[in-house]
Design brief:
The protein is an alpha+beta fold. The protein has six helices and 18 strands. The chain has an 18-stranded mixed sheet that branches. The two termini are about 15 Å apart.
Length: about 300
């Protein structure tokens, strides 16, 4: 049963209870919904899968950690399968745990199937920042890029496309402008086979919204998942992290320094009426080198 009308609880919900939140919100109807079970002890994978299928969105389940150094373990399900990592569900889960007084320290560490995720609490903005590692990427061969272009129904295919990942692999497809991005009408029937052929979990076309070296660069994107149970995603944190890593590595956007990091905003969901904003900033190591990034964004209670 979808609990659309149940008010947001003032304290930690009972085991198995579902709470609805929206993450990376950028307007009244924006953000990506997350059905969240803050105490999933006693639930098995089949029950978690059924809940995600019933709600039709990425769903998050909080469990006790079972590895040293982690504060909680998170599991994530979409209607069709379990996911190793989900950026917006992690940001939203930590925001909710903070609101319920379960998380009170400045930092935390979350266990996921994709590995350990560091977390920082931003008291000024009342939001959590989560870590993602350095991007891994590979340029697509011309035949693979042509297949992607056909699936997205692009009129031409000239700019290099890249498989990039901080967790799951996403295919980055540069477009000339935001109008071209919002005008895409993909061949959704071919999406799964195309992604399988190029070893990707989703296509992530994007366009720069202002000069890349701007003080606060903005990039617009859309995410078409391989097989999640819905055709388009309103906000995809790990795809935004991979995109940021690619643009930073190529010098397309500035990163700043540890003392003055450049914050980038990835706008997503506009074309589907769910405007979202994913905030990304560089993560620096002790020597001042970029070592991945931090993701954050606004969270709101309830469904859109």
């Amino acid at each position: 049963m979808i609990e659309q009308d149940r008010p947001f609880p003032a304290s930690l919900p009972a085991p198995g209870q579902v709470v609805l939140i929206r993450v990376f919100v950028n307007g009244p109807a924006g953000g990506n919904p997350v059905p969240l079970v803050a105490d999933a002890r006693g639930m098995d994978a089949e029950q978690m899968q059924d809940l995600a299928r019933t709600h039709g969105h990425e769903s998050a389940f909080v469990l006790p950690a079972d590895v040293p150094g982690a504060d909680w373990r998170l599991r994530f399900f979409v209607p069709h399968h379990e996911m190793e990592m989900c950026g917006h569900a992690t940001v939203g889960s930590l925001w909710a745990l903070r609101r319920w007084g379960v998380w009170t320290t400045p930092t935390a560490c979350v266990q996921t199937m994709s590995g350990l995720v560091d977390v920082e609490w931003d008291a000024a903005r009342q939001r959590a920042w989560i870590s993602q590692p350095a991007v891994r990427e590979q340029v697509l061969e011309s035949s693979a890029a042509a297949l992607v272009a056909r699936t997205l129904r692009l009129p031409a295919c000239t700019a290099p496309m890249t498989n990039a990942a901080t967790s799951r692999v996403k295919t980055l497809v540069p477009l000339p402008d935001v109008a071209a991005l919002n005008g895409l009408t993909p061949d959704f029937a071919a999406m799964e086979s195309t992604c399988d052929a190029i070893a990707s979990t989703g296509l992530y076309p994007y366009a720069l919204g202002n000069g890349g070296q701007a003080a606060e660069p903005t990039v617009f994107a859309r995410q078409f998942p391989r097989k999640s149970g819905y055709p388009e995603d309103a906000a995809t944190g790990i795809a935004a992290a991979a995109l940021w890593g690619h643009l930073a590595a190529t010098g397309t956007i500035a990163v700043g320094s540890a003392a003055s990091p450049v914050v980038c905003t990835v706008r997503q969901g506009d074309a589907m009426g769910s405007p979202s904003a994913i905030t990304v900033r560089p993560r620096f190591d002790a020597q001042g080198a970029v070592a991945g990034c931090w993701l954050s964004g606004e969270v709101m209670e309830g469904a859109a």
